[in-house]
Amino acid sequence: MDTVQPDTLSGPGFSEGKTHNAMKSKEYENMARKRMLSFDMVRVVAMAMVVMIHVSAYMVTYFHGTDNAAFIVGNIFNALGRAGTPMFMMLTGALLLDERRETASRAFYRKNLLSIVLLLLFWLLFYAVWRAVLIPLMQGGPIDMEVFVDNLLLRKGRGLHLWYLYMLVGAYVVIPVLRLFVKKENREYILGLIVLSAIVQFGTQTAGVLTQGMRFTVSDFVGKFHMEYATGYVPYLLIGWYLTAFPPTGKARIALILSGLAALIWIILSVHFFVGDIPKIRDYMAEMNTLPAMLYGAGLFTWITTRCGERENRSRVLSALSQQSFGIYVLHLFLLEILIGAVLPYKAFNERLPLVYTLVQFFLIFGLSFLLSLGLSKIKGVRKLVRG
After folding, report:
1. Contact of 186 with 137, CB cutoff 8 Å
2. Which of 10, 65, 96, 138 has its CA 20 to 30 A from that of 59?
3. How far is CA 263 from the centre of its chain?
4. 3 state SS of 312
5. Residue 189 and residue 183: Cα distance in Å, rounded?
6. Are 145 and 132 in contact (CB under 8 A)?
7. Does an H or E element contain 172, and which?
8. With bands split at pLDDT 50, 70 and 90, how would you rate the model's confidence at 16?
9. DSSP SS3 for 36
10. Closest by CA position to 7, among listed 329, 382, 322
11. Among the listed ranges 27-41, 43-57, 72-86, 322-336, which one has the minimum average pLDDT value?
């Protein structure tokens, strides 16, 4: 999910001309032949988190009342998954902004950007046909062209997970430009931009949701300065590059990890205690561009990458899960809709056992998505649809 070709140390990079000597290129090629334990671990954990979000979203959204066991369980598991997408973006930055890889920018656009665009178009069409044609036919009803258009063109309806592919297209467009700037000698400038974005985007949104309904809001004030160049998803790319180019150690490492843990606790408790007075806080905490999500993602990314270090991944199971991460991503909503629609519907489970229900659903969806992706990857001509 993080790159079109996620199988090696780094994804496709860009030509740096004479800034890289032959020794660095050879060193990188030797490293790229290995599977890095840290990157595979980040990828698998992030993918599991994305599945967990979609498994638990229904309960935290539709079971009202903070004294409801289903809401409490759904809120906890939904919060646990909130580092998933930030970590995917950080991993994309760590892979695609790596200075050591030499590949022509034009080749990247022609091969990798085009690939992600074609994947987006295919899976948009797949889900549009599934929801507008196949589901109605299986239920004995007519084809719903409105649903088809909503899913294909308007990105409406259930399962909006393909938003990530839209965003990834935009990221791939700007990455060649970022690589002109993202170099170790520009470390201080890049860190400054990350801090600036944390204040004007992530911090502002957090303060803004807590001042909703007031005559004066932090979001309104900061918005007057039009700091859009320091916002969006680019900061996540920069954070991923920075944390791998300059792995934090000592007190900095501990501070990042603890801030991530504090952010996770904040996500859980803020939704639980404030959802009555600020209903939109539940939707806010589902957003990626928030300070808690950024801190949680950066903290967990730091913990995994620094703990794994430069070790090679020798686990066949972890490698297989990592290789199928894109397939799990694009297929899990399809299987989830089948599961809750025909096998384990939400209304059928005992609300006194939401924890059991959530865990059963999670392991079924994650496991079945992996097996289906693995099977499809063995079919010639289909492999690229689930492996990128």
Report:
1. no
2. 138
3. 17
4. strand
5. 10
6. yes
7. helix 163-181
8. very low
9. strand
10. 322
11. 27-41
